[in-house]
């Protein structure tokens, strides 16, 4: 085994030692434990980096496993099975798999339930496949499940469209011929990139989002707005940008709460931003608005999720979908990678760790 970690010849992982800025990440070596029951031990080849990692690291993710520091972030990976527990069937040691593991992927190895892995082919590109379990599946879920079927010809506003999930929404809509008219907010420096995705860009710094959207939609507004910022003001702006009485808003993140965090302002235990946001939406203060969470509203229904994931994987195999991978890092660069998550500077599409040393050489990192 040789990896791009700080200890290339020994297993290890990054630990969140306190809620805070990227500097709270610390590398720790460990001896991977043998799997028991239905577990599988994976040697990670590639791991995904996502905005959720930011939420977890700053104490903004509402889950008991991330309520206090001491966990290993990283929600998705592609790896090889090194060992399996006695209750595992249908998998074999040495098999290449992809997983939404929820935690643990900032590592050389991860021990997870075999029910959370999907076998893939040896000819599959791990760098492309690892972009799928969270980013592209969130996009697919938003477009097909969050408000039911979005009819062809519908207009959709995508917040933060140049980021990993925004990019995925645009690509998924095109790949599966959904016939949607897409608008998206981003910085002016990313307008050309957003146009290349088939999206009409809108300056994210505009003082009146609704007016800008209605200029582009003959005064009507959009049918659906996807909001990842998650502030009361932004949600109200998203509602105002939709069609009167019928337009729908789907909130799927609270990025602003994370962006507002400063290193010395971190709590000792997890924040209640999600609970506050959820209460605001449920209060009826804004009409036609709902909160949609990937982990609870989509991944929890495993049969549907895995069926859809295999459909997305097949689209990559046949060339219909080419995931945008914006930046690749060595696993030793976790602090640097998280600093890009914080700033968003120059990031377009998915960021990833190349963990396997040979694979990193092939990608010149």
Protein described:
This protein is an alpha/beta fold and 365 residues long. It has two domains: 12-131 and 324-362, Alpha-Beta Complex (Quinone Oxidoreductase, Chain A, domain 1); 134-294, NAD(P)-binding Rossmann-like Domain (Rossmann fold). It is built from 13 helices and 15 strands. The strands form three sheets. Strands 3, 4, 5, 6, 7, 14 and 15 form a seven-stranded mixed β-sheet that branches. A six-stranded parallel β-sheet has the order 10-9-8-11-12-13, with helices on both faces. Helix 12 (334-343) links the parallel strand 14 and strand 15. Helix 3 (132-144) crosses helix 4 (164-175). The chain is globular, with a radius of gyration of 20 Å. The two termini are 17 Å apart.
Relevant terms:
single chain; 365 residues; alpha/beta; Rossmann fold; 13 helices; 15 strands; globular
Write the layout of secondary structure elements.
Elements: E1 12-16, E2 25-29, E3 39-49, H1 51-57, E4 76-84, E5 96-100, E6 109-113, E7 117-119, H2 126-129, H3 132-144, E8 155-158, H4 164-175, E9 181-186, H5 191-196, E10 200-203, H6 209-216, E11 224-227, H7 232-240, E12 248-251, H8 255-259, H9 273-282, E13 289-291, H10 294-297, H11 302-317, E14 325-330, H12 334-343, E15 350-354, H13 357-362
Parallel strand pairs: 8-9, 8-11, 9-10, 11-12, 12-13, 14-15
Antiparallel strand pairs: 1-2, 3-4, 3-6, 3-15, 4-5, 5-7
Helix pairs in contact: 3-4, 3-11
Summarize the structure.
The strands form three sheets. Strands 3, 4, 5, 6, 7, 14 and 15 form a seven-stranded mixed beta sheet that branches. The chain has a six-stranded parallel beta sheet with strand order 10-9-8-11-12-13, sandwiched between helices. A two-stranded antiparallel ribbon has the order 1-2.
């Amino acid at each position: 085994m040789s990896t791009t970690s700080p200890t290339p010849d020994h297993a290890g992982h990054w630990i969140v030692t306190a809620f805070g800025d990227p500097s709270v990440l610390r590398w720790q070596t460990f001896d991977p434990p043998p799997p028991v029951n239905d577990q599988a031990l994976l040697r990670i080849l590639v791991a995904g980096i996502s905005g959720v990692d930011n939420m977890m690291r700053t104490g903004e993710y509402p889950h008991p496993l991330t309520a206090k520091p001491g966990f290993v972030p990283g929600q998705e990976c592609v790896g090889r099975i090194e060992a399996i527990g006695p209750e595992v069937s249908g998998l074999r040691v040495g098999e290449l798999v992809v997983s939404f593991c929820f935690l643990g992927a900032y590592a050389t190895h991860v021990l997870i339930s075999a029910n959370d892995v999907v076998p893939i082919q040896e000819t599959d590109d791990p760098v492309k496949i690892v972009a799928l379990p969270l980013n592209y599946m969130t996009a697919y879920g938003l477009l097909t499940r969050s408000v039911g079927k979005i009819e062809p010809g519908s207009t959709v506003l995508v917040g933060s469209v140049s980021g990993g999930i925004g990019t995925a929404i645009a690509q998924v809509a095109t790949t599966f011929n959904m016939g949607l008219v897409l608008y998206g907010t981003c910085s002016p420096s990313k307008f050309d990139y957003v146009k290349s995705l088939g999206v009409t860009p809108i300056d994210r710094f505009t003082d009146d989002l609704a007016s800008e959207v209605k200029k582009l939609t003959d005064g009507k507004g959009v049918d659906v707005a996807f909001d990842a910022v998650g502030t009361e003001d932004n949600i109200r702006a998203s509602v105002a940008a939709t069609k009167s009485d019928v337009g729908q808003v789907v909130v799927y993140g609270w990025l602003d709460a994370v962006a507002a965090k400063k290193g010395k302002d971190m709590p000792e235990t997890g924040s209640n931003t999600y609970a506050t946001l959820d209460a605001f939406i449920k209060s009826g203060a804004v009409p036609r608005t709902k909160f949609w969470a990937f982990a609870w509203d989509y991944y929890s229904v495993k049969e549907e999720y895995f069926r859809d994931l295999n459909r997305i994987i097949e689209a990559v195999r046949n060339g219909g979908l080419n995931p945008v991978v914006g930046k690749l890092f060595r696993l030793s660069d976790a602090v640097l990678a998280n600093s890009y998550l914080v700033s968003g500077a120059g990031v377009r599409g998915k960021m990833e760790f190349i963990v396997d040393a040979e694979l990193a050489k092939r990608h010149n990192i």
